[in-house]
């Protein structure tokens, strides 16, 4: 595990040249924390992610890694601090799962080097840690969506960065794979990783996050503990549909649309 | 097992090389080669045999050029396909080949010596890519890969139109046949001296591709991911495009325009060794060299007149391309 580290955004304005997507965004993340970004489509989550990762410049304010501005760091230095897990995608070429994970070692290699035996051992360890060691030799483009998502998480772990940034890690996964991926995310936070993830499902925020940030219309509407932020009023307002947050007999909170409950037996 | 394929590819190249040396309008035997070798080391001082002359002046330069051209086009094609994450692109994609063609036909129109034609071909190729890159840089905010490829198509089409203009202006009895023949590609008139200038340029283009082989593979994941994995995408891509273009433009300057090789060969190589660039590049170059030796052997043997290489590669390449499309897979090799 790498050194303890903090990711911070201060008064961040995000967007593209000539087009402001959002402003006045401040948040911070430390080890062991899971910050979940919730917000409707087009709210600016993706733009915020790209800005946090240094993939596009901030229009104002700054992103800081342990107090140092991200904008001053080279891509390899950023990659040693922040690991990005994109949505499970299909690559154009049929790399093996192990190849994909090995690419996570890039920022740890000298410019002209390729991964060696030690890197391969580490990549296999990361796969094993996520329970997919047996997939190493398989074609990345042919395994299931959930397995691809786990392989991308293994790649981020091979990067050995203390902070993981996951873009809708549960999108397009079936229920079982969603639970599997969320479970691994929770494990990683317990191991001390700082985790930022975005999701469309407020239940997922309630399941894994230590803090929730609500992004709507390019602004940070609320940030705080899941219980304080994920409320019926807030969800109803940002998703523009009536939502109820109810408690299950086991004490969990779940979000449901505010329709009439189906009649028993009907 | 990991190296088995490479042993096979190397064996195929040696076989193609021996075949290429022996077969042609003037068949050569092993004795001719021995004579030439003996003379080269100063053992044999008698009158050179006809076979020996054909070997030294014609066949050897031609075979060497075939290997160089095939390896360079296949290597550049592999690089472009990996870089643009598109298995259907080839060295023509950034307008390189057409731009180089425009330079060369302008040279023929101006009745320049061979070295002048080659120089202009080379400059034409580099200028086209430079222009495409400037266009892509001016259109920031769009998908960079798409802009590069479409920019290449546009500039290539423009260069093609200029080539047509030059053909109209050219002397129909003297220059036009030379232009037409050159545009279809041929190794018939290559001399060893040409290769001495082209080979170092190809090598110069190859060096960065070999050094950055791992990172070039990472680029195939796309800009955002490559950058988040620690690759300085903008600089590496500029360097790699420059290197692959140098390889393409240098060989086009001596061989003329030979299409399809840079598209077909990387595909076959990917089926053999997988998509990993570190393995794909050498496999593709070995295969490209063998392929060009065989095609050039056919070009000088199947008819009483030389068949232009571009025609043969198109006859092989077009069905291959259709076959690729028909397989209809979402991913490649």
Output the keywords.
heterodimer, A: 266 residues, alpha/beta, Rossmann fold, six-stranded mixed beta sheet, four-stranded antiparallel beta sheet, 9 helices, globular, B: 333 residues, mainly alpha, ABC transporter involved in vitamin B12 uptake, BtuC, 14 helices, 76% helix, 0% strand
Task: Write up this protein.
The complex is a heterodimer of chains A (266) and B (333). Chain A has 266 residues and is an alpha/beta fold. Chain A has a single domain (7-257), classed as P-loop containing nucleotide triphosphate hydrolases (Rossmann fold, 3-Layer(aba) Sandwich). Chain A has helices spanning 45-52, 75-81, 97-102, 117-129, 145-158, 175-190, 202-208, 226-229, 232-239; strands spanning 7-16, 19-29, 34-38, 60-65, 68-69, 82-85, 163-166, 194-199, 211-216, 219-224, 243-247, 253-257. In chain A, helix 4 (117-129) packs across helix 5 and helix 5 (145-158) runs parallel beside helix 6. The longest helix of chain A is centred in the C-terminal third of the chain and has 16 residues, at 175-190. Chain B is mainly alpha-helical. Chain B has one domain: Orthogonal Bundle (ABC transporter involved in vitamin B12 uptake, BtuC), CATH 1.10.3470.10. Chain B is 76% helix and 0% strand. Chain B contains 14 helices and no strands. Chain B is globular and about 70 Å long. The two termini of chain B are 19 Å apart. The mean pLDDT of chain B is 87.
What's this entry about, in short?
Chain A has 266 residues and is an alpha/beta fold.
List unreliable stretches of 5+ residues of chain B.
Answer: none
Pattern of helices and strands of chain A? EEEHEEHEHHHEHEHEEHHEE
Strand content of chain A: 25-35%
| Second rung of CATH, namely the architecture of chain B | Orthogonal Bundle
- Annotated CATH topology of chain A: Rossmann fold
CATH homologous superfamily designation of chain A: P-loop containing nucleotide triphosphate hydrolases
Secondary-structure class of chain B: mainly alpha
- Average per-residue pLDDT of chain A, rounded, comes to 91
Instruction: Report the order of strands and helices of chain B.
Output: HHHHHHHHHHHHHH
CATH architecture of chain A: 3-Layer(aba) Sandwich
- Please give the alpha-carbon distance between the first and last residues of chain B: 19 Å
Query: How many structurally independent domains of chain A?
Result: 1
Number of discrete helical segments of chain B: 14
- What's the shape of chain A? globular
Strand tally of chain B, please? Answer: 0
Specify the oligomeric state: heterodimer
Number of helical regions of chain A? 9
